[in-house]
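user: can you give me the structure for this one chain? tokens are fine.
assistant: on it. calling the predictor now.
[tool input]
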Amino acid sequence: MAEELLAQADYVIVGAGSAGCVLADRLSASGRHQVVLIEAGGRDWSPWIHIPLGYGKLFDHPRYDWRLKTVPQPQLGGRQVAVPRGRVLGGSSSTNGLLYVRGQAEDFDGWAAAGNEGWSFREVLPYFIRSEDQQHGANAFHGAGGPLAVRDPVATHELAEAFIDAAAEEGIARTEDFNGAAQEGAGYYQMTVRGVRRCSTAAGYLRRARRRPNLRVITDGLAEKILFREGRAVGVRIQRGDTSFAVEAGREVILAAGAIASPQLLMLSGIGPAGALHAMGIGIVADRAAVGVGLQDHLNVRTSYKCSRAITMNDRLRGPIGRLLAGVEYVLRGSGPLTVAAGYAGAFYRSGASEPRPDMQAILLLFSTDRTGKKLLPDSGFMASAYQLRPLSRGAVRLASADPREAPVIDPAYLDREEDRRTTLGGLKRMQAILAAPALRPFIADAGEPPLGCSDDEMLAHIRERGSAGHHFVGSCAMGAGEAAAVDPRLRLRGVAGLRVVDGSVMPSIVSGNTNAAIVMIAEKGADIILEDAERERSR
């Protein structure tokens, strides 16, 4: 029985996350194209979405998070690791830690050298610039007036200053811009905030686009299957409540559901490794072995310390009175603990002297939590975390069943490669050297977890016990020049007409740092590619 037709458009976008909101804005901007944007989650009405520090309230939230987990990870003691993914307008840009980091120029030049024409740093930099509304104004590396607001922390902090000074004592010079001419150095992180409110892609891009009559946004619509006619994608079947509907696409279906959900929907629709799909009873549309493989994430390893001075957020937010005062300060002055992102200061550095460029990222957090990450510890405390920037390990996303409501099998294969274990260990040891340096050591009141100066075996045990997701899942529908790649450099799904993937899953390799800025760039460039192809087709 045919589904009831819910909507028709030129472009149907699946996923209103970091990439989908950008696409919806750019594709609808001219008024020439009808666009439908489908989101499985709901509206971004929760105040915790818009308060910067509110991200801590959103992880594992039954309404705003998909609450996914990895399969047991052999190199992490068989633990399953939580996989936070936003389920709301703005996707993970509405629930993430707000840090604005682009990666290194060499990352994108590497994409281009691997056959992805048009994706060198010189060619993608204009899209970073176009997207940005930089607090310090425009220059050769930054833009002003774009939809995505980027700003410094509201204030400096003595613990952050001590960390930056300690890094300098360890040979890592201070930098004012991780996204400028060079990433290496120690300094303050910028964050995606406008005024004192989170600037998700829903706030920055979608809010203005929703005023256009040629854009329709459908929330609470779970994509079940891509619809095909004569080998061409012509729409999407979605579920709302207990009813399935069809949303038809006259030009293209564009998947922007992220590195977990985009390959899942492709496989549910018959695009993926034929043997595995046959075993699920799914009819084959295109045998594409590359769909779902190549999954990457950064393995985040946190260390925790008591602070010798009552200057941390544990102190500011202790008890109901402390939390009330913080709320009042945020509302009346636009300052205080509620303005803080997931990282305050940090560093990009080399795990060893022989490394040609930074291969580690450190993040200083001005608070300390229990192991769940949801509850502040009672004592003054802070944490520092680090991860390897370019892991070699590759995992996969596979179907658990043919039911779109069932979570897929997620395996990032953390630390699968010996090189990754060695780099992570070396990088964490160097971060501990920063923490033990003269500038910062007076702020530390205990040996820490793991203890400063611990052995390699103790550090490796800590990595296996405490390592968690970096929340930077990419690569599961990677682009490339050859037939072995899932999508081509113009983001078209190989083997099927009228279908593209435009999100973090197309990264051939993970970028050196937080991934949200690069995903916004991919969507900005992807929108131009789509419009260029449409104009080329129209002029024939």
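assistant: here you go. The longest strand covers residues 243-255. DSSP finds 14 helices and 24 strands in the chain.
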